């Protein structure tokens, strides 16, 4: 019996943002592996074993999934958003490179999903409409100096910046430190978008100026986007505003 | 009669990568607006008017769609990939800001799609598994000096780089110039992924070392990804290789 291993992106939360390709893989699965809250997003059915695990055990989880697939099971590792963006796909290939040589020739597929940053951007306009970067603000797997160096390079080159994992119970000061660093480069008026639990009933989107941005506005489900010097807001008579970054850019930016 | 305007991402090509949310919007539309090859990807049906237009007329196309929505029609502007990434969403908000004040309070929604870079990344492993940036290599709307400055900043800060619009009939030298610039910063062994027509029958994915990368490998449907100094390849016994960027990063990177 030949097993298979799929790493699937469930998107930001809503069912209507899951691709048919991912739904087909879920329907074919014998085993679901992932961080427990993501596994819980997939409906139970007979013949589907669910292996929810704790956060921050990505390599163990990947090796477990690889062993199941090698035994002949049809395994789906579920990720939130897109699995290739600060999620399970990189952990899987780390496990493959470090693990059994035979794992390299298993039937493995990565299925893309709607990433948190594009779902968040869509809700507020088009903040990522020009050159942008995505930075994982967590310093669990890289030194904080590397994060700061990248923030500085990105702002000086005038990229829009999407920050993943801006805050957690164990990491409280990093986001405010990032805002302080960016205030030294950008005008205080640059828009900052806090997008929390996008497409979920708890969804909340706030826009503030960089000069007033404070880290406590974010929680573990928040994606933060900091505009470039060119990012603009459009006020609406009905209240609220759109945020977008024009496609063009002058010589100075 | 109250009209509506949706900007919808059709993903990279395959039907199975279109979200249910986008399919529902297409089913509700009275008018489809977009670059003709994208409009052609949506099946004809009675009651659906199709307004395909030429490339590079994004602002006119957006204003046309806004006028139709203001007249009470249900308009969907179709984009390839994700509409917020070098596509129609930014053009729409440029047109809104420059246009009729009443356009700001139309019923407008942006619906995310699977972007070319995440679809391409998924096909080859997890090249975007660490901090990355997306740069539109076209110098139609920004000076080439800005492109070079961003490429240099991104490589020096060790971002993985996704290049959109790497080449066109009118822009032939930019991609080779970008490779030459990056060879001055990165080791020649850094993997470069050329992903063409992802999820389409014509799909082709090539991986070469930066030292051997040549622009003529790309065409208008190619997404180019250049690894960071940490990006790795895993050879498979069956031929081919995975490309991924580990989640961790040492102090030097």
TrEMBL record, chains A, B:
**Which pathway does this polypeptide act in?**
Cofactor biosynthesis; adenosylcobalamin biosynthesis
Q: Which GO terms describe its molecular function?
A: methyltransferase activity
The residue ranges of the Tetrapyrrole methylase domain are 5-212
Query: Which superkingdom heads the taxonomic lineage of this protein's source?
Result: Bacteria
* Keyword terms of this UniProt record: Cobalamin biosynthesis, Methyltransferase, S-adenosyl-L-methionine, Transferase
CDD domains associated with the record: Precorrin_3B_C17_MT (cd11646)
A Pfam family recorded for this sequence: TP_methylase
GO terms under biological process: cobalamin biosynthetic process; methylation
What is the protein's name according to its record? Answer: Precorrin-3 methyltransferase
Annotated organism of origin: Rhodopseudomonas pseudopalustris
